[in-house]
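Lecture notes, unit on protein representations.

Consider one protein chain, 248 amino acids long.
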Amino acid sequence: MSKRVALVTGGIGGLGTEICKHLARSGRTVVACDLASREERVAEFKQEINGYAGQVFFEPINVGDFEECAQAIKTVEAKYGPIDILVNAAGITRDTTLRKMTPQQWVDVLRINLDGVFNMCRQVVEGMSERGFGRIVNISSVNGQTGQFGQTNYSAAKAGMHGFTMALAREVARKGVTVNSVSPGYCRTAMVAAIAEPVRNQIIASIPVGRLGEPSEIARVVDFLAADDSGFITGANIPVNGGYFMDS
């Protein structure tokens, strides 16, 4: 049997890179998709995956553009084969309180963080259903569950992502396709490092395990959900947050 092909959006980010590595170690052919304009980061990513030659590749994509996503999927499938696993990890922040938020800050975050999930899933779900196998994992956030000061746009997008997950999971449940969300808490990534230190220290103090999460701890959960034998888990949201938020 040929290797399963996994596509990871936001694949060169802090979480995305670890997800790519974990999927590759589990025997998948992995395509990291991200903005080609991030030239410096693309170069760094290629250095980081040196040990995964022939397993992890890079392809440019803008998840906020439906037609570009369609073309990127065609390119990926022509080069590597049908996409069996889709991980939607692309995301941005434009933090500010609602009373100061511009329409553009709202639109930008929703376009990448939520529209991007539609744009990608819409391109792959039919092929997955026809082949009788698919794994879609959407990277949401603890702030989609709790809300966060200055993140009405981000929290709305991440909460919407899980609503999308549950609805699509119902649509394709009998087709061999699972759709799940993973909601990371605060992890050691560039996005969290950009938070002002006093605020970051407050956040860490409120995490019951007393530390930030590691990207590898998120990647392990994604890898588990993407496995062939995880077919009885669908429509779920898996929180990985160190106890920061515990749902009843």
